[in-house]
Design a protein that fits this description.
By secondary structure, this protein is an alpha+beta fold. Helices cover about 25% and strands about 25% of the residues. The strands form 2 sheets. It has a 4-stranded antiparallel beta sheet with strand order 3-6-4-5. Strands 1-2 form a two-stranded antiparallel ribbon. The chain is globular, with a radius of gyration of 13 Å.
Length: about 120
């Protein structure tokens, strides 16, 4: 699968929470697509898997604040960016957010831009 011109690894089976065969404990950008079409785009400099759990468990997270649970997930895609700088990861995150119309564009659950 491609996000723009960036290859994206899509996972759909085996972590007890998210269905990953191999938990994505890598730095990179992830996209959570909900069954109702809403999308959350996030990133991690070290461990995407932990950030996925935080999206549904942290009271500060946009996904949990919007009332979503793991049963609302349609798909999760992960772009492994091992070896890239934090700046490059954040820029890629913003690029993916922009592909969904950006913050306030109607589709994204994100509440803020990553790159001004």
């Amino acid at each position: 699968m491609l996000a723009g011109s960036t290859p994206v690894l899509v996972h759909n089976s085996s972590c007890s929470t998210f269905g990953f065969r191999d938990a994505p404990t890598v730095p990179g950008v992830y996209t959570i697509t909900m069954k109702d079409g809403k999308v959350y785009v996030g990133s991690s400099s070290t461990n995407i898997h932990s950030r996925l759990h935080a999206a549904f468990n942290s009271d500060k997270a946009a996904v949990k604040s919007a009332g979503y649970t793991t049963s609302d997930i349609s798909n999760i895609s992960v772009n492994d960016m091992s070896g890239h700088s934090w700046k490059a990861i954040r820029e890629q995150e913003q690029s993916v957010m922009d592909q969904y119309g950006g913050v306030g564009g109607g589709t994204l659950l994100n509440r803020r831009n990553e790159v001004p």
